Input
Amino acid sequence: MTDDGIYQAPDSNPVTSSVPESFYSGALSASALNRAGWLSIFYALLTIPMILLPFSGEIIGQDLSEKAAHGMSVLSLAVWAYIFLMFNRFVTLRFNLTSLKIYIMLLVGLSIVLLILSFFLDQSEDVESLSPVSVVYFALLVPYGVVSILFGRKLLSVAEPYPYLKGLAWAMIISGVCMASVVFFLVALLIGLVADVFFALIFFRGKQELIDAASD
Output
C-alpha cells in the first residue's frame, strides 16, 4: 500500500455495498418512491380528521359526519394499500425480504373487511348493546393487531442497519398491541401517525439511494 493509500476513497460504499443489484435494476424508480413518500405524509395528515370525525356529529350533523367518514375511509384505505404494496416492493428489492408480503396481504384484506363493516356500524351504540356487526368489527381488530405485530417483528429481522426501519418496526408492534387490545384503538391510530412518518422517511431514503447510484 502506498503512503497515500489511507487517503483514497474506499472501493465500495459501505452503505450500499450489500444492496442487491435488483434494487438498481430499474424495477423501482426514484419517482415512484418519492410519490410513495409524499402519499405517506398525506395519509398521516388524513388520519387526523379521520380521528376527529366521529366526534363531529353534534357540530356538522350526524348524517353528514357519517357520510364524510365513509368517504374518507375509502380514500384512506386506497392510499394506505398503495403505501403498503409499494413498501413490500421496496423491501423485496432493497433487502430481499420476500416474507413480508403475506402480512401485507393479510393487513390489506382485513382492512377491506373492516371498511365494509364500518358502513353498517351504528355510531350511537353503547358498549352494553353492541350489534352483531359491531361485535364482528371489534373482534377483527384483534387479528389485525396481531398481524401488525408480526409485520413489525419481521422488519426487525433485517440485519442491515437502515435508517428509520427499526423505528417503523417498533411503531407497528406498539400499534398492533394497542389495536389487538381494542380499548386502545384510538391510541393505535395515533401511533400509526408515527409509522406513516417513518414510511415517508424510508421511501425518501430509498429514492436518494437510487439518485446517488444513477449519478455515479
